[in-house]
Specification:
Layout (H helix, E strand, L loop, with lengths): L4 H20 L12 H13 L6 E3 L3 H7 L6 H11 L6 E3 H13 L8 H10 L8 E2 H10 L6 H11 E2 L4 E2 L1 H8 L9 H15 L2 H20 L1
Antiparallel strand pairs: 1-2, 3-5, 4-5
Helix pairs in contact: 2-5, 2-10, 6-9
Pfam families: EF-hand_7
InterPro entries: EF-hand-dom_pair, EF_hand_dom
GO molecular function: calcium ion binding
Length: 226
């Protein structure tokens, strides 16, 4: 009923053997999740500026790399971003910090360029006579007095491209065409985010998909009311 002493001894031996195996098991870390399409794109552009293949870029290149992604970032926003991602001791930006911060920012549609139609409407407000151009002095005044003021460097950079040096006029439709970044859809970070969201939505069960769509509609409605 209780088993023989020999059986008890064998049972104890087996248990000790199992215990030894458990104690010597090598813990296997779970594989890291596969990078998202956006993370891949961020790494690709980062690598272009990482000349030493150290996983770091010079902090002075931060604005250039962000704009190379097709983002529109002001100097004030760039300074805020630098505070978040810079390794101050080494004056560099590590890849991981850059990818984490920019992934979140782009997913939230930060630094997204204005649509050409919106730019045209903004310029037309400064051209009530519909002449098709704005005098450089008038545009510069508007840029420093309306909304978030441009810095002198930002205005100088803009005028270098937009202003006709002979007439001091800014033909804004021509300027808008110059601004439109011709980035293929599969490389445009904002198009990548939109496709990721579509793929996520399609992978959801129908009920959750409907709930997600309703939530998104509510968020858009609340933004319109603000």
């Amino acid at each position: 009923m209780f088993g023989t002493p020999h059986q008890s001894f064998e049972s104890d031996a087996v248990q000790r053997r199992i215990s030894r195996r458990e104690s010597t098991k090598v813990s296997v870390a779970e594989p890291a999740p596969a990078p998202t399409p956006l993370e891949k794109r961020l790494c690709e552009v980062f690598d272009v500026f990482d000349n030493t293949r150290s996983g770091e870029i010079d902090v002075r290149d931060l604005g250039t790399i962000i704009r190379a992604l097709g983002c529109v970032i002001t100097e004030a926003e760039l300074q805020e971003t630098q505070v978040e991602v810079e390794d101050v001791e080494n004056n560099c930006v590590p890849l991981q910090k850059f990818v984490e911060y920019m992934h979140k920012a782009i997913t939230e549609r930060k630094f997204k360029p204005a649509e050409p139609e919106d730019l045209l409407k903004a310029f037309q407000l400064l051209d009530p006579e519909n002449r098709g151009y704005i005098m450089a002095d008038d545009l510069e005044k508007a840029l420093t007095e309306i909304g978030e003021p441009f810095t002198k460097d930002e205005i100088a950079d803009m005028m270098a491209v937009a202003c006709d040096s002979a007439t001091k006029k800014v033909y804004y439709e021509h300027y808008i065409n110059l601004l439109i970044v011709k980035i293929p859809k599969n490389l445009n970070v904002y198009s990548i985010v939109e496709q990721m969201e579509i793929d996520l939505l399609e992978s959801m069960p129908k009920k959750r998909r409907l709930e997600s769509l309703l939530l998104e509609a509510e968020e858009r409605a609340s933004k319109l009311q603000m």
